[in-house]
Every structure is written in C-alpha cells, then in structure tokens.
Amino acid sequence: MPGGVGGSGPPGRMDALHTSGIHFAEALQSGPPWLEKFWISVTSLADPKCVFTICFPIAYFLDRKVGLSVLWIGLVSEWLNVVLKWFLFGERPFWWVHESGLTSKQLVTLRQFPVSCETGPGSPSGHCMITGAALWPLVTALTELASRQSRSLVVKLAPFGAYTLLLLAVGLSRVFILAHFPHQVVCGTLAEPQPACPHHPGAALGWGLQARTPATRTPGFFVAAALALLLSSLALHSLVIAAGIDIDWSIHLATKWCSNPTWLRLDTRPFASICRDTGSALGLGLAAGFPLQQGEQLDPWQRVASAMLALVAMQGLHQLLQPTDVTLWYSTSFLKYATGPWLVASLLPRLVLSLSRPQGSPHTD
After folding, report:
1. What is the pTM of this model?
2. Catalytic one among 18, 98, 127, 183?
3. Is residue 127 flagged as an active site residue?
4. What φ, ψ does residue 240 adopt, rounded to 5°?
5. Model confidence over 246-265: pLDDT tens digits?
6. Which residues are registered as beta bridge partners of 197?
C-alpha cells in the first residue's frame, strides 16, 4: 500500500516525514543499553489490552462510575482507532524502511524486537490514542481526590503530571521498537490538528466521552451497542473491500519484513480489537443484568481484596484457551472479554462479600 494515502498528505512529504522518523528511531536505539528494557516494558504495560484487564478492575474498585468510564471509553476509542487505521493506511517503520528502498540508499542501523511486528496499519498509534483516552477519567478522579486532601499545587497536579509523562514515555517507546513513526504517535496523543493527522483522537476523546458514560443503562443498551460495533465494523470492512482495497495489505507487509515469524501475533490484527470491543460491551450488559443489591456495599478493605482478586482472575482468564486456529482464537477472545466485566462488577464482589460476611449474620439465610 503506497504511502500518503487516505488524506495523510502527498507521497513526497510523507516520504520525508517517514525518513526523519527513521532517523529519530535510530537515535533512540543508539541510547544506553539499559533503556531498551525500559522502553519495551513501557510499550507492553501500555498495550490497549491492559485497559481492559488491569486499568478497568483497578478503577472500578476505586469508584464504580470511573471504572465504567475507563472501560467504555477504552472500547469506543479502540473501535474508532481501528476505523481510522483502515482509512489512513499508515505505514509502520519496521516494514517501511525496507519497502521504501531507504536501506539501499543509505546505511540504516535498526533492530526489531518481539513487540515490533504489529500487523495492523500504523496511524494513529493505538497505544497512545486508547491509553490516553481511557485513562482520562481515572486521572480526573485522582486529581479531584488530591484536591480534596491537599492544598498543595504540586499534589493537585501530580496525577496530570504522571499522565503526561506516561503518554510521552509510551510514544517514545513506540518509536523505539519501530511500531510507529513520531507523527503517528502525535496523532494518537494530541487533540490539535497535525499536518499529517487531520483527526482529533487521544485525550480529547476521553474528555468528550467521559460525560457520556452509560453508568445507568440497561443490559439491552449494551447488547445493542455490541451489535452496533460489530455490524458497523463488518459494513466498513465490506466497503473497503468493495472499493478494491486489499484490507490485509499491512498483514502481508508485516509477515514479509518481520525478522522473526514467531513475533507475529493474532492479537495485533484489527479484528482482534473488534472482538475485544464488542465482547467488552456485551460484558457490561451482563454486569448490568446482575448488579449488587442495595445494601451489598463493599467497605474499603473489601474493595482492595476485590481489586486484587479481579486482577488475578483477569490475568488467569486471558491465559486460558489460546488456540492457533484463527476463527477459534477470535471466538475465545470474544468470550473472554465478554466474561471480564461480569467477573469484575458482579461475581467477584459477591464472592468477597460472602467470604467476609460474619457467621450467623441474618443475611446468610
């Protein structure tokens, strides 16, 4: 797929932008050896999957509405990210450097890593866009909490400071591992229009969606939302194919230029994200259908216990059943993400309440 398609700018300008991005990645990779582990750790921890399996459980037991906002914004922003990638045709550095012929024109010293070989299009950066949007409700909640507890400006601004540093580190890590060019990171992070990014994702998306969190919606709403996400994805996919575009172009290039075939992962494909988003929307419906009853409130220690149990359960759930067959993999992935919100918001809190209930309590009957 040629560069500069889909409104990203003229090919000449994009080639210059890509070349400068390659040199920036070279400069990052030439840094101290200890930074390599740091960048790889950052990019792994900021994987969009972590919004669903780590950030959501932690935020939910901090505050129910905040947790629902994190998950809802995470799934909506990830769906939007997939759609943007389908129409912007963003290259990824680890294949562009070869496809462009740059390596035959000048000496380029770059390394790939196990997390480099993502198979979807590259623009905008999903790590930056989804993480930036989904963490916004958590950051604003922590800021409000800090403001109530302290008059110190430093304490009040600490959550936003940490948030900014995190997004900066995530963006640099994505360039370091050759998953994204710098302008794709900027597109995913910032709200202001960029020369190569005519859209407005990232933190502004989190701000815009936070007030629209469906905290009191019925299960039917979430079932409808899951169907809407799935059917619209299939419709857009069909539209792209009908336009004569090879929807798997990025998978072909990733397979061709990944230096180690075992580094290619199914969970980096666009439809893996669609499975995650539709499954999570349905899972919110399951959770809404089995809420805690009035009077079944968790005290602070029960919240901590529930959060720890949820984190363990979510990691265990996503380690189970990882088939190699593509269709079966998508099916099990959908089921896992549909189960997650129900575990976090309904089953595990009930388990903690039942285990911590005093013997002889009238509620045990």
Report:
1. 0.89
2. 127
3. yes
4. -65, -45
5. 889 999 999 999 999 999 99
6. 194
